Amino acid sequence: MSTPAKLPELFGSLVFNEETMKERLSSASYKTWKKCVTEGTSLDISTANEIAEAMKQWAVEKGATHYTHWFQPMTGVTAEKHDSFISPVGGGKIIMEFSGKELVRGEPDASSFPSGGLRATFEARGYTAWDPTSFAFIKEGSLCIPTIFCSYSGHALDKKTPLLRSMDEVSRQAIRILRLFGDTEAKRVTASVGPEQEYFLIDKADYAKRKDLRMTGRTLFGAKPPRGQELEDHYFGAIRPRVAAYMKDLDEALWALGVLSKTKHNEVAPCQHEMAPIFSDANTACDHNQLAMEMMKKVAEKHGLVCLLHEKPFAGVNGSGKHDNWSLSTDTGKNLFKPGSTPSQNAQFLLFLAAFIKGVDEYQDFLRATVAFPGNDHRLGAQEAPPAIISIFLGDDLNGVVESIIKGTEYKDAGKRTLEIGVDVLPAIPQDNTDRNRTSPMAFTGNKFEFRALGSSQSISGPNIALNTIMAEELKQFADELETSKDFQADLQKLIKRVFTDHQRIIFNGNGYDDAWIAEAEKRGLCNLKSTADALPAYIAPKNVELFVKHGIYTKEEVQARYEIHVENYTSVISIEAHTMIDMIRHDILPAVSAYADQLCQRAYHKDSMGAAHKYEKATAAEVAQLTDELMDACVKLESDMAAVPADAKEAMQYSHATIVPDMAAARTVADKLETITASEYWPFPVYSDMLFYV
Ligand code: ADP
Ligand code: MG
Q1: Atom of ligand 1 nearest to the CA of 445
Q2: What CA–CA distance (Å, rounded) separates 637 from 594?
Q3: Among candidates 491, 193, 166, which has minimal Cα distance to 335?
């Protein structure tokens, strides 16, 4: 479709972006929109009408016939409801119509989206409203309008509304701090996010034969292949032609949608790859990540491939995560997590750093909960992703600074001075730290933090809402304290020292995979919420609810609703997995291994009657038969335990975690043993080596 030379034309060609608006709107309307975006003012209906008209014309010129409000309900995926532009004008004629009213507000019949009890049945409809900070775009012949999604009582039913609220709040509080440092220019501080997305690609034919992949997104069975990732030859290895063709198409699809897809490479596991975009504001990053996940799946289909976004499609090989790179920057172009070149800039940097450290320490349980869902339980703490314990990695240089401030001693660097905040310059802190500590869940990487505990399939909204809000809270506390200070420099120094001292326990620069860290973290009093069932209650811990209510991010009911949705989701996912497993055992595996054992017995019988040796047949048949019965027993146990899932949602989650998950693991162990001794022609579906080494 395009060559690199045409990239500037391709990029954003399907987006009704600022440039297009400038071109197609009257200057008054453009200014009203701009003001609405930068200052949060509302759009009047005549401006909305003009934007709608321009948007429609543009979309129709590009071949669009429908429009849809595109929103992010609490399912974690996006939702659309398509209406055509067609409007009858009598005489069998139609015109293409789309008004300001339709642009700014929609009413999807949304009773089937999860609401966690927020939307009573008598008001089953929710409404969607345009988020003018996010550009409309064309996808598959439809003009997609990014919207928020609320109930009629005003409760947020989506993942965008609270994200926007948290971005406003962190901006407000950060500006207060900047004023204290004499910055009178910055008007807004933006949370910037760059999510790195991992994924697997497998052949569509293999996928079609695996019920577990189709139903649950992951393999519920599969013995370790003779070759996994031991050779470590995949990571950054040459990209195979079939995958390269896919990546090229994906890039082009994303570029047309204005997604800044930048890096692509192979990941650790065979068939695993990564796409990283250039960072943008958190809202756009979140929209774009949703789009990227959708496009990854759609483009794969065209190449006879299937893109797996599950956190753990294959046991025994690395799973997929999402690194959420997060920072704060001003509308005047300053990154607030970048150490500066003057003492004052550095004092400001250290204050923001202190806020981050304090916030992550105080709300570590909530941050953990934002990455808690069944798929991620397979990764966190399994030596391939950060442990379930939240801690911060600063790197040697920055850690040296923090320690010298706490102890009031000299730095380790050549200067050998005691650091006086606001007077001294920090030692050079290398950007893009090379001593990367891949085992840390929250790593400082020179000018941003990288939250590495996210799962590949999840929306990045929740974790970023948490980071923004936590940061807003700490900055608010600091601003409240320092705004009334009589001696800013002295009080600043005291505050930073106090905060670093009180919250040093959250800083850990060692190996997060080490068992010694688990013990050490416990001594430090850090949370170790190992599973989703352990982590989710943090959602409704009073201190956490208070935080979000206080800053107007979630109402009490909204937090409760989200908690309930996650709890129910856990049980549903485990239940689908368990039923799929039972189905595959009963309909595929048991009949197959029984037939195989029978075949071996017949051969042994015939050989025996001829007086021929039949040790192999007899021994294998016996082993297969033994394991077959064991598998049946394991399946029966799983079935009967599934019949006893408690009705109460919270109890059901705990029960699923404590009983069903181990039952499934036990059944899998037996089935995987059977796989290794069963003749290939009898095994009912493709095995790991087929799926992972298809090229
Ligand atoms: P690595 O894989 O080594 O972690 P990448 O270059 O793949 O590094 O990803 C780094 C990500 O961080 C990119 O998405 C990049 O755009 C993003 N990033 C860079 N600077 C910032 C920033 N100030 N705020 C948020 N994200 C950032
Ligand atoms: Mg990274």
Answers
A1: 4
A2: 20
A3: 193
Q: Give the ligand whose atoms come closest to the C-alpha of residue 274.
A: 1
Q: How far is the CA of 429 from the centre of ligand 1 (A)?
A: 17
Question: With a 6 A CB cut-off, is 446 part of the ligand 1 pocket?
Answer: no
Give the pLDDT confidence of 570-581 residue by residue, as tens digits: 999 999 999 999
Considering only CA atoms, which residue is closest to atom 13 of ligand 1? Answer: 194
SS3 content of the chain, % helix, strand, coil (to 5): 50, 15, 35
Q: Where are the domains of the chain?
A: 4-157, 166-217+227-554, 569-692
**Where does the pLDDT of residue 8 fall: very low under 50, low under 70, confident under 90, or very high at 90 and above?**
confident
Give the containing element (helix H, strand E) for 226. Answer: none
Instruction: Report the candidate in 434, 445, 440 with the shortest Cα–Cα distance to residue 512.
Output: 440
Topology match between the domains 166-217+227-554 and 569-692: no
pLDDT tens, position by position, 88-104? 777 777 777 788 888 88
Binding site membership of 451 for ligand 1 (Cβ less than 6 Å): no
Contacts of 406 (CB under 8 A, 6+ apart): 497, 500, 501, 504
CA nearest ligand 1 atom 17, residue = 194
Residue 155 dihedral angles phi and psi, to the nearest 5°? -80, 140
The pLDDT tens digits of the residues spanning 117-157 come to 775 544 556 788 889 889 999 999 999 999 988 887 778 88
Distance 386 CA to ligand 2 centre (A): 12
Amino acid at 129: A
Bridge pairing between strands 136-139 and 15-16: antiparallel
Residue 263 CA, closest ligand 1 atom number = 7
CB 172 within 8 A of CB 475: no
- Cβ of 193 closer than 6 Å to ligand 1, yes or no, is yes
Residue located nearest, by CA, to atom 2 of ligand 1: 196
Report pLDDT for 233.
Answer: 62
Say which CATH class 166-217+227-554 falls into.
alpha beta
d(CA 194, ligand 1 centre) in Å: 5
Spell out the CATH class of 569-692.
Answer: mainly alpha
Any ligand 1 atom below 6 A from CB of 192: yes
* Alpha helices (H) along 555-614: 556-584, 590-609
Indicate which atom in ligand 1 lies nearest the CA of residue 436.
3
Q: The pTM is what?
A: 0.94
Among 236, 267, 279, residue to substitute to test ligand 1 (most atoms within 8 Å of Cβ): 279
Q: Report the SS3 class of residue 399.
A: helix
Which residue shows structure tokens 């543009």? 58
Q: What is the identity of the amino acid at 428?
A: A
- Whether 521 lines ligand 1, by a CB cut-off of 6 Å, is no
Which CATH architecture fits 4-157?
Answer: Roll (3.10)
